[in-house]
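Attaching the record inline, Q. Sequence:
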Amino acid sequence: MSTRLACVVFDADRPRFIADFWAELLGWGVTIDRPEQVDVAAPDPDGADLALSFLPAVRAKHGKNRIHLDLASRSIDHQRLQVDRALSLGARRVDIGQGTVPWVVLADPEGNEFCVLEPREEYVDTGAVAAIVLDTRDPLRLAEFWATAAGWPVAHGGEQVAGLRSATGLGSWLEFVRTPEAKSGRNLLHLNLASFDDQDAEVARLRAAGATQIDGVHPSTAPSLTFADPETNEFCLLRPVRDCSTV
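Structure, as predicted:
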C-alpha cells in the first residue's frame, strides 16, 4: 500500500486560536500557518509524523464529537498537572455521562471533547497523544476497515474496544470504542490519509475495503478526495504527502 495516516482535522471557528491551544497543551509547534489552515505537530519523533490540522468551520458543533483525543500521563501527579494546564489555557470540564472514572473529560475552548488519562502501561511510549478515539457501534469491524485503510495492524480487538497501532510501535494508537448512538450529521473532526504515488490504485483499494466516495471528484483533478468509512465517518485521501489539508 502507499498511504499513511497523516492528520486529525478539526473544523474550527478560529483555527489559529484553537491550534495555539493544542500546541501549548501538547508542547507541539505550528508547522503550517495560513488563513485557511493551521497545523501543529510534535517537534520530535514523539508524534510519528501525525499532525493536527485546523480549518475554518462550515457548520456549528451539535452534540458530542464522534472522534476525540486521549492524552497520556506519566503519573497521577502528571495527570493532575495536565488537567490544570488545560484549564488554565481555556479548557473546561464536561459531563458526557462518564460517571466515576479515573480519567478526566474536558473540552477545548471550542467545545471539542478530549480526555486526560490516568497512567496506563500501553501508552508509556506514545508521546503526548495516547490515542485517537472513534465512537462506533461495531469496534472490531471498524478497526478492521481502518487497518486496511491506514496499514496499521489490529493490536487488540473486542466487543467494546479495538485498537490499532503503527507497525513501527511509534506514536498514538487509533482506537474504536463501542457507543450506542448512531452517527448524525457530518463530523467536526475527521482523519486524513496521505497517498504517496498511485492514487487511482489507492481509491480502488479503499472502495474494496468498504469505503464510499462522497464527493464524486476524479483523483487526477483534485488535491484530495472525500470518502466515508463503513459507519459513514468522513475522511480524506490526499494526493500531496507534503501538506495535511482537506477539500
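The chain is about 20% helix and 35% strand. Residues 76-89 form the longest helix (14 residues).

More tomorrow.
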